């Protein structure tokens, strides 16, 4: 959030701009935050440029002790500096309040961490006769039915909330192993840095390890999807790319 504030006032180092712009492109909430900071700064600059009312200058000068009175030019300069300082404090307060109000996105690790938790709902049923999707979905993004083709059967579902965002995980089992397919509602999370990636069918998949488990993450209709658990990265990638192909 500090970098977003610096981005808004033009003080963000050049080498950090690309990363911040990527985050902004993926989040309407963060773009709104930057726009609020820019409006506050514009208002501050406009107020600072306004002439000091003569009546206020006279009142301030009259209330000052005689020993502290200085030439008129010095008094005007001091007054303007005081006003500018007060306005800076107001802008700082706006930034702090905005930071406190802006909901933080859940971390990728916290979303993947649902793989270690237990279901809190029954396994979703297959939909129709096509054998490609289950009855569970997140904002129109349906969970796949891996059973007919790959033998991974749905075991249960877990609905959770991470940093105020609804997150749903469907658990699948095969040969005593378990994996979780997690979909985070809302705009996509920031992509994990420094991970191996593969592009299949025009979709970029990132392979990594989270909490000691292999994982693959990608985006479907703007939502972050994570497939993680007791399977190799190659198998997870196969399942992920298949689910994307069925949804296309």
Can you put this structure into words, describing what you see?
With about 250 residues, the protein is an alpha+beta fold. The protein folds into 2 domains: about 1-100, no CATH class; about 110-245, MucB/RseB, C-terminal domain (Phosphorylase Kinase, domain 1, 2-Layer Sandwich), CATH 3.30.200.100. The protein has 8 helices and 9 strands. Helix 1 packs across helix 3 and helix 3 runs antiparallel to helix 5. The chain is elongated. The relative contact order is 0.11.
Total strand segments: 9
Can you write the helix and strand succession as a string?
A: HHHHHHEEHEEEEEEEH
Per DSSP, the total helix count is 8
The CATH superfamily name of the largest domain is: MucB/RseB, C-terminal domain
Please indicate the percent range of residues in DSSP E strands (runs of 2 or more).
25-35%
- Principal-axes geometry comes out as elongated
Q: CA-to-CA gap between the ends? A: 35 Å
Mean pLDDT across the residues is 79
Topology of this structure?
Elements: H1 2-9, H2 14-25, H3 28-49, H4 54-63, H5 72-101, H6 108-112, E1 133-138, E2 141-144, H7 147-150, E3 153-162, E4 165-174, E5 177-184, E6 196-200, E7 203-210, E8 213-220, E9 223-229, H8 233-247
Antiparallel strand pairs: 1-2, 3-4, 4-5, 5-9, 6-7, 7-8, 8-9
Helix pairs in contact: 1-3, 3-5
């Amino acid at each position: 959030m500090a970098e977003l504030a610096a981005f808004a006032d033009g003080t963000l180092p050049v080498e950090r701009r690309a990363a911040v712009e990527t985050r902004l492109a993926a989040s309407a909430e963060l773009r709104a935050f930057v726009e609020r900071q820019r409006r506050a700064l514009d208002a501050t600059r406009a107020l600072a440029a306004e002439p000091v009312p003569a009546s206020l200058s006279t009142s301030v000068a009259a209330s000052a002790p005689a020993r502290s009175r200085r030439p008129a030019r010095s008094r005007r300069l001091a007054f303007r500096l005081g006003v500018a300082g007060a306005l800076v404090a107001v802008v700082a307060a706006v930034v702090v309040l905005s930071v406190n109000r802006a909901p933080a996105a859940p971390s990728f690790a916290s979303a993947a961490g649902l793989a270690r938790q237990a279901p809190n709902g029954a396994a979703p049923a297959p939909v129709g006769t096509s054998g490609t999707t289950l009855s569970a979905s997140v904002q129109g993004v349906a969970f796949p039915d891996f059973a007919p083709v790959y033998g991974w059967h749905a075991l249960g579902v877990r609905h959770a909330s991470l940093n105020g965002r609804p997150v749903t995980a469907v658990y699948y089992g095969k040969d005593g192993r378990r994996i979780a397919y997690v979909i985070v509602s809302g705009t996509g999370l920031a992509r994990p840095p420094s991970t191996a990636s593969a592009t299949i069918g025009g979709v970029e998949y990132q392979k990594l390890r989270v909490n000691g488990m292999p994982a693959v993450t990608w985006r479907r209709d703007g939502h972050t999807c994570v497939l993680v658990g007791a399977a190799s990265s190659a198998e997870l990638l196969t399942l992920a790319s298949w689910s994307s192909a069925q949804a296309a």
